[in-house]
Design brief:
The chain is an all-alpha fold and 319 residues long. 74% of the residues lie in helices and 1% in strands. It has a two-stranded antiparallel ribbon with strand order 1-2. Helix 2 crosses helix 12 (258-276), helix 3 (64-80) runs antiparallel to helix 4 and helix 7 (155-177) packs antiparallel against helix 10 (202-228). The longest helix is centred in the last third of the chain and has 27 residues, at 202-228.
Length: 319
């Protein structure tokens, strides 16, 4: 896979975007600050999926269940107890990681397609439980008016909290992906039989990758609670999982930053489409068809391939 926009080459660009994001509340209206925060949350969620999809080759068909679980665990802690909010912020990712571990133990023994289908079934069971348990989760009404600490109760406070936690999470994800574990994970993706043949415990690495992805999806769920102040069962419905998958494919699922770019495009288009039409699902279907036919490697994947091609063609040939 190409690395034209990874590592040191992307550092100036990342720092530039970081400075822009830090200064955004000084120049943009409240709505745009909210939109940027939502893009950060959704981008973190998409990149957590890509940890197992793009880097691990695991077909995760119901990743949203970890997102919703993290959000609900945090929301219930804040809504039903008087414990400090920090406990809820920590509980969300931990519960999501535990769910990912349980589902992974059940599913990881299966092959790619069957792994995804079984995970989709188990995730749908969790969604049904949340959707029907009115006395605890609020059922299809969800939970609203979740109290927040004063530091993040304002739009700017929640924005900076989201920016900081997202930045730390992305840094950790980058270190994991580029660690020895991450390299082994990619080797398993490319050739699981050969990896197993040289002594790598394939199922163990896939299970650990699943837990990492579930944890960071739970972090994204907590940040959603901070931005929106509410949760609802649609956060873990299978259609959201499909939308996250499209974000990864649109941005470039064999790249690190591609899912963040895909999330920015999809969230922005969804916001614009909400103003002019009620048929966002149709718009999303058109995006998916165009992507399959004209940009199968994704937007960032296309530019990485172009960058790689230009570098190879610009190398002087021996006379």
């Amino acid at each position: 896979m190409f690395n034209g926009f990874a590592g040191r080459n992307s550092l100036p660009l990342v720092l530039g975007f970081g400075i822009i994001l830090l200064c955004a509340p000084l120049f943009f209206a409240r709505f745009y600050i909210y939109l940027i925060a939502l893009i950060l949350v959704t981008g973190l969620l998409a990149m957590s999926l890509n940890m197992v999809l793009g880097h691990g080759g695991m077909f995760q068909f119901h990743h949203a269940v970890f997102y919703g679980t993290g959000a609900y665990a945090c929301a219930l802690m804040l809504h039903k107890t008087t414990l400090p909010a920090a406990f809820g912020f920590i509980l969300g990712p931990v519960v999501a990681a535990i769910l990912a571990l349980i589902m992974g133990i059940i599913c990881v023994r299966l092959s790619k397609l069957y792994f995804g289908m079984l995970q989709l079934s188990l995730g749908s069971l969790v969604w049904a439980l949340v959707f029907r348990w009115y006395s605890f989760t609020g059922g299809d009404d969800g939970i609203h008016g979740i109290p927040m600490p004063s530091l993040i109760a304002s739009i700017n406070g929640s924005y900076y909290f989201t920016l900081i936690i997202s930045g730390v999470s992305l840094l950790l994800m980058y270190r994991i992906v580029n660690s020895p574990f991450g390299r082994v994970f990619e080797a398993i993706r490319d050739n699981p039989e050969r990896s197993e043949g040289i002594g790598i415990n394939v199922k163990h690495h896939q299970l650990v990758g699943q837990v990492f992805a579930g944890f960071f999806a739970g972090v994204a769920g907590v940040l959603f609670v901070c931005v929106e102040g509410s949760v609802f069962p649609e956060l873990m419905f299978w259609t959201l999982s499909l939308e996250i998958l499209i974000m990864c494919l649109l941005g470039g699922w064999f790249t690190f930053w591609g899912p963040m770019l895909g999330a920015a495009i999809v969230v922005t288009l969804r916001t614009i489409a909400g103003v002019y039409t009620e048929y966002w699902t149709m718009v999303l279907a058109i995006i998916l068809m165009l992507l399959i036919f004209y940009l199968p490697q994704g937007v960032l994947g296309y530019f990485e391939e172009l960058f790689h091609h230009r570098r190879t063609t610009s190398v002087p040939k021996d006379i």
